[in-house]
Amino acid sequence: MLLAIDCGNTNTVFSIWDGEKFLCTLRTSTHHARTADAYFTWYSTLVKHYGIEADITDVIISSTVPRVVFNLRVFADRFFGCRPMVVGKPECLLPQAPRVDAGTQVGPDRLVNTAGAFDRHGGNLIVVDFGTATTFDVVGHDGAYEGGVIAPGVNLSLEALHMAAAALPHVDIAKPQRVVGTNTVACMQSGVFWGYVGLVREICTRIKAERDQQMMIVATGGLASLFQQTEALFDAFEEDLTMHGLTVIHRYNKENTPR
Fold it and tell me: What positions does the entry give for ATP binding (predicted)?
């Protein structure tokens, strides 16, 4: 079985793939000082709790936090006896090489989302990922990553308001009942929610105009469902897009790496 690990700036997600479906998905906060032993204690406790018997033979990692990769490598080697694939490293092959400026390093999360979205929807896509940053990834007709846009994440914007303005409280993102708020919380929620609706709509419109073609918009990430339910911003919502992309890249390497 495959253990797919997606390490983001805020959370790290572990999913067990049996070749046909994900048996479980486990989530923990990202912390660069967490040791291999600590990962295994947490992982094994939850797997046992869910009653899952998983014989892990392969591990693949996508990490936007380089400092955690070493301990995840040790975790895979020590407890599963395998050398993990790490997306973004030269030895981890991609179905299509990204078409970006020479010397540019593309975030592994964006490469994984590209692979997952192309596998499910084909090419000419815009993938919008609501993570710590809100990213827009352009997927070419052949599945290659062709660039994108990076904007501050929704929660990051709310936290910045709270930290920079002493009078403004910390609030959770939600769709306000009205655009014009009559209290501080409602005003902040309206600004962030409708501001991001406008941001997503405008950026996607401009990408389509710049490329002069129709493109399917695919959303993923924790807050994508909130915006999808309230505004018709996306053509599809994929909750497990990143994890699916990891299985796609793993399969591609298995099929194209000499034994």
Answer: 6-13, 132
* Max Cα–Cα distance, the chain, nearest Å: 65
Same domain, 38 and 126: no
37 is in an annotated binding site: no
User: What residues are annotated to the active site?
Assistant: 109
Q: Locate 259 and state its tokens.
A: 């034994």
Coil, strand or helix at 54: coil
**Residue 128 phi, psi dihedral angles, 5° rounding:** -105, 120
Element (H, E) at 69: helix 66-80
Say how far apart CA 49 and CA 45 lie, in whole Å: 6
Say if strands 2-7 and 236-237 run parallel, antiparallel, or are unpaired. Answer: unpaired
Amino acid at 174: A
Q: Is 28 annotated as a binding residue?
A: no
User: Rounded to two decimals, what is the model's pTM?
Assistant: 0.89
Per-residue pLDDT tens digits for 231-259? 688 999 998 999 999 999 999 999 987 66
Q: Would you state the structure tokens that stand for residue 172, as one six-digit string?
A: 């959770």
Question: Which pLDDT does position 166 carry in this prediction?
Answer: 64
Asked if residue 108 belongs to a known ligand binding site, the reply is: yes
67: containing domain = 2-86
Q: Are residues 190 and 75 in the same domain?
A: no
